[in-house]
Amino acid sequence: MTNLRAGVDLGGTKIQAVIVDSDHRVIGQARRPTPVAGGPPAVADEIAATVREASEAAGVEPGALAAIGVGSPGYVDGREGTVAHARNLSDWEGVFPLGSTLAKALGPPVFLGNDVNVAVEAEFRLGAAQSYASIIGVWWGTGVGGAIILDGKLWLGRGAAGEIGHTVVRLNGARCSCGRRGCLEAYAGRGAMETHARRLVARGRETELFEIMEKRGRTRLSSGVWERALDREDELAVALIGRAIAALGAGIASAINLLEVEAVVIGGGLGTRLGQAWADRVARAMNPHLFVPERAPAVHAAGLGDLGGAIGAALIAEGEMARRVDPGV
Ligand SMILES: [Zn+2]
Known about the structure:
- The protein has 329 residues and is of the alpha/beta class.
- Helices cover 41% and strands 19% of the residues.
- It folds into two domains: 5-118 and 307-325, Nucleotidyltransferase, domain 5, CATH 3.30.420.40; 131-303, 2-Layer Sandwich (Nucleotidyltransferase, domain 5).
- It has helices spanning 39-58, 98-106, 115-126, 185-188, 190-202, 209-215, 223-231, 235-259, 268-286, 308-325, and strands at residues 5-10, 14-20, 26-33, 67-72, 75-77, 82-84, 110-114, 135-140, 144-150, 153-155, 263-267, 298-301.
- The chain starts with a strand and ends with a helix.
- The structure holds zinc ion.
């Protein structure tokens, strides 16, 4: 057995696996598209294949890994090793034993965590938020996820804490993917922004967004498409991102008024892609809503980039191992 661990970031479009050493250095990685048919068993097979490929790149047998961590969307029960309601994955509504399925396929013990929680924990321990004790992570992508770390510890509430995307920024506002109205995600989520853009185009608004999308062979407005449109100063893209930033400012500032943590880390597909200049814009949008503006929190773009989620997943494998060895930890 080695002291190498695998971390897997399970996303709606891709599965990213890394192999890390005891200093959290990535020594091998692989990325594969997430299967869009076949349900949880097909996804589990593909995760196993991605871990094997990353292991090969690192020159290690998968069976020799100390542990494997997986960051998954949906409702993750780390103790039971199950995932349910992973709605952006195919046919994944029910409870599936992802942990035991992967352990059987690959050998080492498997530990599961929520995808946003593990990515934020990675930024806290290894990335942009290393110098703070308490932070909020805001994961700005298709939806708007979040995680809270208080005095060095992930705050899970009764299991679902951190859903900053579903804080209300406007009473009776836009319809959210969760079915409710006025949520932050209904203004800032990439999915909601695309729906809104399509509606405006149907009413005659002009934009290059969909041209750029088609040129890139995409069927959705990806983070890269938004970035390109912003570079071209496309009027609609600028307006919709501005609307998203205003909503993020209100939602995040409200969370700060409640918790007064030292820093905010903005990651996710759009957050990572748009970087620090846009994190600074979010900070400016927060300012008018802050109860103690002279003590505004630091706002950082995520520092670990694309691999942050997978590196964070490898961290949960380490944490769980430590807990096993010493139950007092
Ligand atoms: Zn909502």
